[in-house]
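Dear colleagues,

As part of the handover before I leave the project, I'm documenting each prediction I ran so the next person doesn't have to rerun anything. This entry is a single chain, and its sequence is reproduced below.
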Amino acid sequence: MIEAVGLTKRYGAKTAVYKLSFQVRPGVVTGFLGPNGSGKSTTMRMILGLDTPTAGHVTIGGHPFRRLPNAPRQVGALLDAKAVHGGRSARSHLLSLAQLAGIPARRVDEVLGVVGLQDVAKRRSKGFSLGMGQRLGIAAALLGDPQVLLFDEPVNGLDPEGILWVRNLMKKLASEGRTVFVSSHLMSEMALTADHLIVIGRGQLLSDMPVKQFISANSADFARVRTPEGEPALRDKLSGVLVEAGGQVLSEPDGALRVTGLPLPRISDLAHGADVRLWELSPHQASLEEAYMRLTQGAVDYRSTDDKLAHLQAPPQPGEPGYGMPQGPPVPSDVPQQGWYAPPPPGQNSYAAPQPSLQKPSDTTEDAR
């Protein structure tokens, strides 16, 4: 198990990670999410002893990484697939790592087979594609058959077959009781791979919960209702009935109605009572991407300002992603605007579960993402 307690990392006047506490438990795939500059890479480097925390501590199995006996046999990691001497072959690179850790040479051939590089084992790594480099990095992480594994963007550069292979590999490793910690920006893939999520923004914890609970807590589900085309009177009649019953109704461009505040059986009963025939009544559940964007929109450092038509966009309406969320986080007068993040007050988003309050850092940014 990985455990971080009050983890803080400062680079001079800049704070990359601030009082971050979480646990990564064995037996499940834990996703590590956050915008660019949120502190993910710095956190992973501190877990692996590559960076020393300014305050707090992080342990693996109850011990700091640097105090683990023969750490490569206990912890495997992929942080940078390019960290390979280009003049070495894939097998030579893995063999050198194995010799340093006292791992038998036969294990090198085993992991080359696991990642599918056995046919190019003697090729120099400088000729590898991005996806092949990722496979080599994963092989290095698996070399010591460790119980704890960390992967930073493991599917970067892989084709669809490779992405599916990584997804199944992560699930298999977790099913064996290992601790699997995966950072990625691919929300669709994380939704299929991870069981639990840890989300940070500007170095601070935003969420720590199972994937399904995360989506439910940070999204606005709604019902999609459609009446027969060419009969606008029925559509208007149903809309009035739903509003009278306490629902919120919005019209969609294709003529359907978006209804929030009423369960599907209630909508069906109201339509039947009003003698309105329905062509469609379907639930809409937010995706992980929608929930993630809703939670982290106030913690994004890099936004494009080159949209000449941005001023023409209508503000989000009830039931739409972004509704009820402030356009930017509140900034106290005594704190420099750059690097400050505080989540919106719970009352401003009726759909999201209250998040824990964040303490104020002096200034936050991050180097790697």
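The first helix runs from residue 40 to 47. DSSP finds ten helices and 13 strands in the chain.

All the best with the project,
I.
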